[in-house]
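Pilot study result, target chain (626 residues):
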Amino acid sequence: MQPRWVQRVAGAGLASGLLWTALAAPAPPAAPLQMAEVIAHMARTIAWYRHIAAAGQSAQLPADVLEREAAQRVSTRALQLAFDFARASAPLVRAPQAAGARPPASAFNVDQASRRAAERISTLEGRIAEVDAALARAGARTRSSLTARRRELQAELNLAKQIRDSIQGMRAFLTSQTGGGADLASYIDRLERSVPEAMRGTQPAAPLPPAKAASAESPYRPESAGILKLVTEAFRMARARSLLRDALDETETLQKHVDEIRAPLVNDLRNAIRRSDTVSADSSSQTAEQMDADRQEIEALTVRFKQVSAALAPLREQNIQVQTLRNSLTEARNAVEQRYAGAVNYLLFRALGLVIMIAVVLGISELWRRGTFRYVRDARRRKQFLTLRRVVVTCVVAAMIVMGLASEFGSLATYAGFLTAGLAVALQNVILSIVAYFFLIGRYGVRVGDRVTISNVTGDVLDIGLVRIYLMEMAGGPTDLHATGRVVAFSNSVVFQPAALFKQMPGTDYVWHTVSLTLAPESDLQLAQTRLMAAVESVFEQYRERIDQQHAAFQRSVDVPLAPPRPEGRLRFTDAGLEFQVRYPAELHQASAIGDQVVKALGDAIAREPRLALAGSGAPKLRTAV
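Predicted structure:
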């Protein structure tokens, strides 16, 4: 799909082509110019002027590569000189064809072009109405793009109206030409009214909003631009380069056409001078009648010379103006090509650098993953390292992509600061939970299967998420906990709450229970101590090996030496009799069964020894040790 400025220029070129075709009707030859040549030159100049105006008003053309006001002044001056040349050449051209002649076939083409121009104006007005309706209900984000779109459509509408006026002028010209009542001066006046900029005393048209927007843009610095800015600049310079190339080609074509028109005029002047010299050389040997005829011929040559010189002067000045603008367009094209090459080079460098840095980060991530699987044997610790790896790599890659794509890091840092402050306030609980997650999975943190107590809720850990921890709720007595069938979810931020979080020691799966009973006062103290402890030890021996393994795992994870867990008993005298208390470790998930075995073993030991007897209210009591 062609850019919009190409469509506008194409419309102007179509109009000028129709003008040229309409005015190129065959006419009897006349030296040195014909009316069709003069009118065709004006049509070509008008098309060229429209082309240059469209290029100057295009938002794709940077304001710093082409002096827009100077280019507009030069092109307007060249257009005015074309009309000056046409007026001065009026005495040199043949009159239009006689009345009653058949109108040229190109007149019908002008009618078709007039209808197409009207249809295009109607279409553009409909599009502007649609954009106005969209602006009425648009939000702040899309309003700027819709406003720019409306300005561009308005520029296209103005150009379409100018094309319509030019076509209507040519239509009137063809109508008057077939009627035979018009001369070259009237044709020129009609064409001039179709191009108001060509009239003397008028001010050049003010630049349209796209040109103003381009001139007010911030300075472009490729060394500090991001990838998005460089991509935008590369596409923009490519379009500007194509725009300037077309304008330069049109300017060179006009310059060649001016040279072609100048050639017969210059030859006519040379012939007049040569003929004058010939006539003057033969005057010494001529009769009076011959000398009078030579005088009349020299006077006619003088008039002819003055007419041709008057027509040649504006044509020569127009050639100078066109050459001046050609030089400006050449310099602008070279500057655009340099900017395009610079943008492409910096873009390739930035993109390649970003790809290399991301590849390095991903390589380090892969080494991290392999090292974790090779050197970290503990599954829980391995999961922690892999989670940390994902978070770090994601953050680093995201930061690198943002820094590579973005421009103007100062503005980006300010925007990021405000955005971060707002997010920190809005997501403070979420952020606190994410931070607490790393405490929960730390060295002395919580793992799946641990029994914990949070806010007076006891349960087994089912899952530890990034923001939540899930427990299977336990209920019942201190020594007989069982699952309730409910799952309790807590925010990870409970780690930072004043309420304590209770959990098992790392690597252990046992709890301490206490059994107490009261013996009669006459019981043997030494015998009670020996027999009762032996009963408890007999139960403990059934699972002692597993407790020792858990204790060994705990010792490897901490630096504090602790004695291995063993049953501990104590006797003391009370008012009710001799109280015996024994404290022993019990596996967490079999604590209730182990407690029953301990109570039964103590009862059997007392029953087998006659010298031991329970006091009246001294039955064994089992409770969780604190």
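One observation from the pilot: The first helix runs from residue 4 to 23. A full batch analysis is planned for the follow-on phase.
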